[in-house]
Amino acid sequence: MGAVRSGIFKFFPFFSTFFIIAFVASGILLFKTSSADTGGAGWDLTFSDEFNGTSLNTNVWTPELTWGYNGGSSEIEGYAPDDVIESGGQLHLKAEYRTLTLGGTTYNYTSGMIQSSVHFNQAYGYFEMRAQVPAGDGYWPAFWMLPDMSGAAQSEIDALEISSLFPQRAYMTLHWGYNSQSAQGNWDSSSALSSSGFHVYAVDWEPGVITWYIDGVQRWQYQSANVPSTPMYLLADLAIGAPGSWVGTPDASTPFPSTMDIDYIRVYQKVSSGACYASIPGPNDPIPSTICPVILPPTPPPTPTSTPTSTPILPPTPTSTPTSTPAPVPAPVPVPIPSPVPTYSTSYDNQPPTILITNPSASSTLSGVVTLSADAADNVGVVYVDFLLNNSILGVPIANAPYAMSWDTRNTPNGRYLLSAQAYDGAGNRGIAPEIFVTIANGVANSTSPVVSSPSPAASGGGTPTTPSSYVFTRNLSIGSRGSDVIALQEFLFKDGDYPADIVTGYYGALTVAAVKSFQVRYGIINYGNPSTTGFGSVGPRTRAKINGLGG
User: Fold this and answer.
1) Which CATH superfamily groups domain 354-440?
2) Fewer CB within 10 A of the terminal residue: the chain, N end or C end?
């Protein structure tokens, strides 16, 4: 997930030998059972649920988390088994606004989730889900994996997360270690992912490298020794964000009930020989099976018989003796029968565009109407460019060079902002310009807008900031948060001696987590050395009150 759902993981012993199960009637298939194959390298299907039944198969899935009914402090829903509905060839995870008590806790919202911890774990392979996500503030759909083995490091692979604050963006993340270090990529669609129907979200997890795909196209890749090797189980859920979370929270506009609709979840494993599939079948291909498809050999040319069945057509008699023997008529070339399983093409452009903001310059003070401009280039061609203010799109996409737009800054409150730009090519690759800070100052400063002072050298001994800021923090912040309040937090931590360097990004990442932990320990908010403590490394009510009390 974009932020680890909980600091508590319950591990079960991993069974190295799986039971061979085939729930054919319900559309669930586990583990290869036939040796018929393509004869070469490729993929074997190891798990598949097409959700063609009338109820969730609890021999494969559990509709509750291993640690309880709620995903953690960033969520407000209780996961209720009756919000998991299988019908019409799909699985529906339903979010509802209702009051329900689960495990002794009363929730005002409920939703659905599934996980395979007891029944299916796998290290390495291609894990995919075809699903349609709902629209609405506070919705947090996800497809992810966790280890289920005693003593395993707290790794997590997030194939998909969508924040309702950025509905066009798919977040792709790897977390590792007990201090929740992470690496994250994201990909933006041209419109909200909820508005464009079903998509296939997938990861190819191999030793030392994880590659993320959306609709069969590579969107991000991470290579590192931090890539886990422990078998993991599958999770899919529709969470509901808590107030102040990085995904937003429900309001009066949020439609209830809403569902995340899952067409199928499939898992493959790469094999060097004897593969069922040369590459991963797509959503419009025949449904894959653990029983490998029968591959028909090419039709051989007919074998001539000793006695022709009809009079052959002879060439005309030459008028003179030929000087050479005529070339023999070549035998017909057999036309191979195509494979019955079409696949995604493995030939694709994965090189993102390059883009750089050319106007305004970094640290500019802006007022009135200004021109934003950027230079963008791509090995194939740039399709469009967007300008971003605090990671929200400004205006409309710009399809042609020069990539420029007029921006009336008077429609934006005075203050300091992150300005960037993004460029897309025809393959969906995204290039992002380095972010710059700009300050909007139109007339008299808006007294309700935050005024963030420039960072000054850190105090050598820590303690009270040397230059108080007028920013008042009002929301919880945690890893993955973005915005002007994260900028203010980083500047405060820098001046207070906790932030390691003058690196203000506006993104709550690993450096900010470490700085907040140091601050919490120094001021006695949380005892050091307890990584499972709720809020350690995040800005919650107590930490926020302390920062505000110090003039943060």
Assistant:
1) Immunoglobulins (2.60.40.10)
2) C
